[in-house]
Specification:
- The protein is mainly α.
- It is built from eight helices and no strands.
Length: 115
């Protein structure tokens, strides 16, 4: 494999990685809640920037949203704005590096509850 091919496939740490850390989510948390046979290896590839297919990006995004969803109470679920794959992967079509997380306030409340 040439270095150009390797560069095209390895795109660096993704926004997903930071979001998972901010929400306090580990790879195992996502694998555990996924109903789509998501593996630890797939989540790690997604976080580290290995280029994924659209279908795989969507699968990881669904697992991320469901993992968060299970941590929320009914009132918080009403306020939660689900993430789209274009918010979690910097190589996805429509990615906006200036994206402001609409769930930042909700995330702060959950962090307070944990401490």
């Amino acid at each position: 494999m040439s270095s150009t091919e390797r560069e095209e496939r390895d795109l660096g740490i993704q926004p997903l990685d930071q979001m998972m850390e901010e929400w306090g989510i580990g790879n195992h948390d996502m694998v555990e809640v996924s109903t789509e046979q998501l593996t630890h290896k797939q989540v790690q590839k997604a976080r580290s920037g290995r280029r994924l297919t659209l279908k795989m990006m969507q699968k990881v995004t669904r697992a991320f949203n469901v993992t968060i969803w299970f941590r929320l109470n009914d009132e918080q679920k009403e306020a939660f704005d689900e993430y789209l794959h274009k918010r979690l992967f910097n190589y996805a079509k429509g990615f906006d590096s200036e994206f402001k997380d609409p769930n930042a306030e909700l995330m702060a409340v959950l962090k307070e509850q944990k401490s």
